[in-house]
Amino acid sequence: MNPKVEISSLFVSKLKDNATFEKYNIDVSIDEVENSESGIKIKYKFLLLSTPTNSKITIEGLASILGNEAQVTKYLAPDEKNIPNIVNTIYQEIFPLLYVVTKSVEIPCPSYKISQISESAPAPVKSSAQIPEEPQAAPKESQTAPKEEPVEQVQEPQAEQPDSLGDLEKLIEEQNVSPN
CATH classification of 4-112, choosing from 3.10.420.10, 3.40.50.1110, 3.40.50.2300, 3.40.50.300? Predict the structure, then answer.
């Protein structure tokens, strides 16, 4: 069973428009709030700061891991980068919100994997909504909208249907008129 992730607060700030961007530095804290036979509750806090400093994202909440001791231990165990699995799970749950919020505030979106956040940014990605030469932190596929090709709509002249509209009106009128 996946942990239940609740968000209690979200704070996003941007100092100025058109600022350069290299990467996000992330600070994560998790604290055990409650421990019982049925599972545990963890308070989490993610703090993402852009380099150079222009954007700050803070998100806090609770994650509930339900299950026996073995299931809970699985989530608390570290992955190959020594990050507890619960941190990755929480981040995956809140990432869609981060994506939408960062796009609406017009700041770069963090990487979709927490282990890639503090790594160097890939080559600059350009899209029509961005200022040229603005580097992005997330992989190319999550940063650019699909290219829309112009669609030419051709409306072919329709053959005259002499009384089809009149027939349709009569049919509707007959159905709406009661015999009384």
Answer: 3.10.420.10
